[in-house]
């Protein structure tokens, strides 16, 4: 038997300064990293105003953009990152388990 090795996730979030959309995206991605990828993720935050060469290199057309580099395949998610289900789907994370009510468990 092989031991379970945690998957390492490498994410890059492209933002534009401290704009409200960038701040909201950063909060959403950090929450996702803490809740779903705890201990398995490296998150790099790139301010497009400070790092224009990275914007060109990585073909970033809009912000915020979240790039999943590892595990493959490479994925880019652009725009509103507050929809947890959409972000999870784009990153190929398992869907959130359904919430059971007492009536369903009987």
UniProtKB/TrEMBL annotation:
GO terms for biological process: rhythmic process. InterPro entries: KaiB-like, KaiB_domain, Thioredoxin-like_sf. This is Circadian clock protein KaiB. It comes from Pengzhenrongella frigida. CDD domains: KaiB_like. Residues 12-93 form the KaiB domain. It holds the Pfam family KaiB.
């Amino acid at each position: 038997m092989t031991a379970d090795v945690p998957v390492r996730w490498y994410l890059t979030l492209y933002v534009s300064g401290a704009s409200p959309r960038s701040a909201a995206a950063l909060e959403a991605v950090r929450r996702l990293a803490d809740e779903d990828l705890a201990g398995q993720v490296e998150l790099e935050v790139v301010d497009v105003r400070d790092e224009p060469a990275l914007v060109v290199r990585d073909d970033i057309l809009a912000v915020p953009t979240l790039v999943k580099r590892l595990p493959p395949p490479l994925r880019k998610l652009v725009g509103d990152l507050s929809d947890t289900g959409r972000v999870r789907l784009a990153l190929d994370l398992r869907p959130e388990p359904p919430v059971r009510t007492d009536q369903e468990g009987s």
